[in-house]
Amino acid sequence: MNEAVLKNIPYSILDLATVLDGETPADTFPKSLELARQSESLGYTRYWFAEHHNMASVASSATAVLIGYIANGTKTIRVGSGGIMLPNHAPLIVAEQFGTLASLYPNRIDLGLGRAPGTDQVTAMAIRGENFNAAHNFPKDVERLQRLFSKENRDSNVRAIPGEGLDIPIWILGSSTDSARLAAEKGLPYAFASHFAPTYFEQAIGIYKANFKPSQYLKEPYIIACVNVVVADTNEEAERLSNSVKQMFLGVITGKRSLLKPPVDDMDDVWSVYEKEAVEQMLTYSFMGNPETLKEKLNSFVQYYGVNEVMATSHIFDFEAKLYSNKLFSTIFA
């Protein structure tokens, strides 16, 4: 096994602006900024937010606004969306928003695009209205967005000001195989949500690599794998801290979502055998333990799947423990 492989791998953060039990989004946002500043100092490549709606524990619904907040409070780290759920928005509005961000923070803004609603069907209907089936337009909407960003669009009747002529990297996000084909066809980088949708990860990145067509944006396939991460001084402490994310996913599968809860001592007091099995399946691509444990497991993961970048998301209740986990995680790549 090549132990040096992680030294060449960029590492990044996905933040859902998770709201803790007993707190509000107003408490959450300054913590995101502190985490972003720490991540910047530790050599993380990018800091992304994910668009979700109607979820009590997720405060990143106004994704572009948060990107501006973090970019303004940092200096060098790339900030972006992981992602913007494009069927929820008109491409022109996305182009204008990210054109504004890229004008304010040049060469630092990423635009990751997803086709899912980022919420339940009732909320998706409230967002999209008559455009409820807009996901079917995703490939054409990506093309519309690319055209709005292009210099060639200056003679069009519809222009993105600001946005036109700016170099804003577009990423295609996926949690199934559909978007893998689109990313490959368009020669765009691909980020997979293996932190909550592990089922199709291997198949999707295989499709992407096999069908990739070089483009003006990218000559070779580029894959980000998003994974759950909890690092502590000992495997036992990391396991205990991880009980918060396990409770979060338990809420997902039972439909009983809540604010992020503190870790319990024993998850067997909380879940049934069947619920445990379902949660552990969702957590297939999770890395929890001390730095030595993570380095070994992550090294194997990166080599086996051939991913180009690792993006960590960490649902840790205690903020100091979260900062410490973030610091320990960065040492794995040294």
TrEMBL record:
Tell me the domain of life: Bacteria
List the GO terms this entry assigns under cellular component, sorted alphabetically: cytosol
Record-stated family: To bacterial alkanal monooxygenase alpha and beta chains.
Which intervals hold domain Luciferase-like? 23-303
One MF term in the entry's GO annotations? oxidoreductase activity, acting on paired donors, with incorporation or reduction of molecular oxygen
Source species of the chain: Pedobacter paludis
Which InterPro entries is this protein grouped with? Answer: Bact_Lucif_Oxidored (IPR050766), CmoO-like (IPR019949), Luciferase-like_dom (IPR011251), Luciferase-like_sf (IPR036661)
Protein name as annotated:
Luciferase-like monooxygenase
